[in-house]
Amino acid sequence: MNGGQAEGERRPRRRYGRIILVLLILVGIGWIAWQFLALRPARSGIAAPEDARAPEGVRIKVEVLNATQTRGLARKATIYLRDRGFDVVGSGNVAEQRASTVVYDRSAHPEWARLVGRAMNAPVVERPDTSRYLDVTVLLGGDWRPPPLPFHP
Predict the structure, then answer these.
(1) 66 in helix, strand or coil?
(2) In whole angstroms, what is the distance from residue 110 CA to residue 107 CA?
(3) What is the DSSP letter of 143?
(4) pTM over 0.85
(5) pLDDT per residue over 52-80, tens digit each?
(6) Phi, psi (deg, nearest 5) at residue 52
């Protein structure tokens, strides 16, 4: 009888082991899927239009500030905007934490701020400040994702 009880006790343990293994596999798959979703561009993957570039021969001075805890986000946005022809004259971090990206128009050129807003897929707010010697400030929020970089072997 003792032998029968020992076998009966082992079967539930095997079942629990299999259930735990299946749960670990599902958690792993979920984590991988979450990582892929976190790397996709913001706003359902809609890329900025190609015409969201600085006009030829026009210097639009932009400041990029990271308002998230994501390290290196301002640097990535700086590279992205420079690739589109904008003159990023400053970048850094701010203590304010934002969920969404916003573009501030600092000069009397709202069309320039709209171009940067289109490139960043963010709303534009008028906040003139002539003491800053720049045209646009971009405050990066948690919704902004850098576009995927092309693969260069």
Answers:
(1) strand
(2) 7
(3) T
(4) no
(5) 888 899 999 999 999 999 999 999 999 99
(6) -85, 65
